[in-house]
Amino acid sequence: MSIALRELKPPIDCKTLTVELVESSLFAVQDDINPIDDVRSSAEYRRALTPVFAKRLLSQITNCE
Q1: What's the pLDDT tens digit per position in 17-64?
Q2: pLDDT tens-digit series, residues 6-18
Q3: Distances in Å between the alpha carbon of 20 and those of 23, 26, 37?
Q4: Separation CA 35–CA 19 (nearest Å)
Q5: CA R_g for the chain
Q6: Could you tell me the maximum CA-CA distance found in the chain, to the nearest angstrom?
Q7: pTM score, whole prediction
Q8: Distance CA 30, CA 24 (A)
């Protein structure tokens, strides 16, 4: 698990998630990963998508939009 996501300890809900906390966590996750380059996509592209997928994950587990 990412260091950034470890900081978001349960319970995570819409009341405890602030915009600042979400934004800092999303970009910390991006810095925390080391994606590979291959024929399907570049490491740069994978790194750019990381905050998008992390935000979707947080939305799903907290039922927040």
Answers
A1: 677 777 777 777 777 788 889 899 999 998 888 888 888 877 777 766
A2: 555 555 666 666 7
A3: 5, 10, 31
A4: 26
A5: 13
A6: 42
A7: 0.60
A8: 10
For the chain, give every domain's residue range. Answer: 3-62
Amino acid code (one letter) for 46? R
Helix (H, G, I), strand (E, B) or coil at 63: coil
Q: What's the CA gap between 7 and 31, in Å, rounded?
A: 15
**In this structure, which amino acid lies at residue 52?**
V
**Separation in Å, CA 42 to CA 28, 33, 34, 45, 53:** 20, 14, 11, 5, 16
- In a 3-state reduction of DSSP, which class is residue 41? coil
* Alpha carbon distance 49, 53 (integer Å): 6
Residues 6+ apart with CB under 8 A from 63: 14
